[in-house]
């Protein structure tokens, strides 16, 4: 009987706390609703990426910090996790990696939209 109680408690713990969903929310901007990180900052996609592949590394990633995924995070629905060139993990939506823009300073800023013709607002 005791073994069953421990097994049930262990199963509950594993199901309730083992994985984290994408740390994404939606914010309203002058261009409509966009995806944002938990910090409220707008997320973007990069036209030079391929589905499931981030091509923004080095200096690019310094200006466009990736929305990083943790070791315990798991993909769900439209949100997946891609492995970056350095082996770290990044969140993606519909296969496209998600990034912040260093020049956005507050929730609702969308100053990265259209930069160099290759950065787009990430949409819900």
Can you describe this structure?
With 124 residues, this protein is α+β, with helices and mostly antiparallel strands. It has two helices and seven strands; from the N terminus they run H-E-E-E-H-E-E-E-E. The longest helix is centred in the first third of the chain and has 16 residues, at 2-17.
Keywords summarizing the entry:
124 residues; alpha+beta; 7 strands; single chain; globular
Short account of what is shown:
The chain has 124 residues and is an alpha+beta fold. Helix content is 17%, strand content 24%.
Blueprint (SSEs and pairs):
Layout: H1 2-17, E1 24-29, E2 32-37, E3 44-46, H2 59-63, E4 79-83, E5 89-93, E6 96-97, E7 119-121
Antiparallel strand pairs: 1-2, 3-7, 4-5, 5-6
How many strands, what sense, and barrel or not for the largest sheet? Answer: 3 strands, antiparallel
Query: Which spans have pLDDT < 50 for at least 5 consecutive residues?
Result: 1-18
Give the CA-based shape: globular
Helix content: 10-25%
Computed structural class: alpha+beta
What is the helix/strand order? HEEEHEEEE
Name the strands of the widest sheet in spatial order: 4-5-6
Q: Please provide the count of β strands.
A: 7
Strand content: 15-25%
> What is the radius of gyration?
17 Å
User: How would you name the oligomeric state of the polypeptide chains in this document?
Assistant: single chain
- State the end-to-end distance: 48 Å
Q: Roughly what is the average pLDDT, rounded to an integer?
A: 88
- Give the helix tally: 2
């Amino acid at each position: 009987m005791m073994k069953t109680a421990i097994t049930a408690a262990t199963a509950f713990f594993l199901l309730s706390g083992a994985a984290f969903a994408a740390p994404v929310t939606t914010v309203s901007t002058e261009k409509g609703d966009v995806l944002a990180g938990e910090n409220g900052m707008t997320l973007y996609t990069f036209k030079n990426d391929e589905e499931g592949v981030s091509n923004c590394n080095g200096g690019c990633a310094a200006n466009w910090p990736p929305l990083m995924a943790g070791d315990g995070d798991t993909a769900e629905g439209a949100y997946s996790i891609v492995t970056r060139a350095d082996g770290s993990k990044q969140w993606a939506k519909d296969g496209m990696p998600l990034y912040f823009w260093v020049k956005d300073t507050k929730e609702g800023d969308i100053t990265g939209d259209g930069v160099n013709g290759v950065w787009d607002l990430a949409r819900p």
